[in-house]
Design brief:
Layout: H1 13-20, H2 44-53, H3 63-74, H4 79-86, H5 91-94, H6 103-113
Helix pairs in contact: 3-4
């Protein structure tokens, strides 16, 4: 992803609360650069340490995006909503989750066409 193309990441209150444990004051970075504390740095080394401590193997940070999309689809989110949350520019990319996003389709058809006899 290009820095000129930022994405908004919506976090739940429990996640925000946990992240605040690692910062001094509002606006502080969770993973500041050691050379320039006002700039973020990649947290890959910390991620690898956490995986090792938790004895988790064969898992990438990116896999969390797939989990998020799957949970959203299974809870009835539309493909358009999932694409919006993940920042997909093309709906085709999001279609890999379509097999999980069926309940909202059935509800929509029933709501609109359910009374037709």
């Amino acid at each position: 992803m290009d820095c000129a193309d930022p994405r908004l990441l919506t976090l739940t209150p429990p996640v925000l609360e946990e992240l605040r444990r690692f910062t001094g004051k509002p606006g502080d970075l969770v993973f500041p650069s050691s050379r320039r504390p006002d700039q973020p740095y990649t947290f890959d080394s910390r991620w690898q340490e956490a995986l090792k401590a938790a004895k988790v193997k064969n898992f990438r940070f990116h896999d969390l995006r797939h989990s998020c999309a799957s949970y959203l689809a299974q809870d009835g989110a539309s493909l358009l909503q999932i694409a919006d949350v993940l920042g997909h520019r093309q709906l085709q990319v999001t279609k890999r989750y379509s097999h999980l996003a069926t309940s909202h389709k059935a509800e929509l058809v029933d709501r609109v066409l359910g009374d037709i006899r």
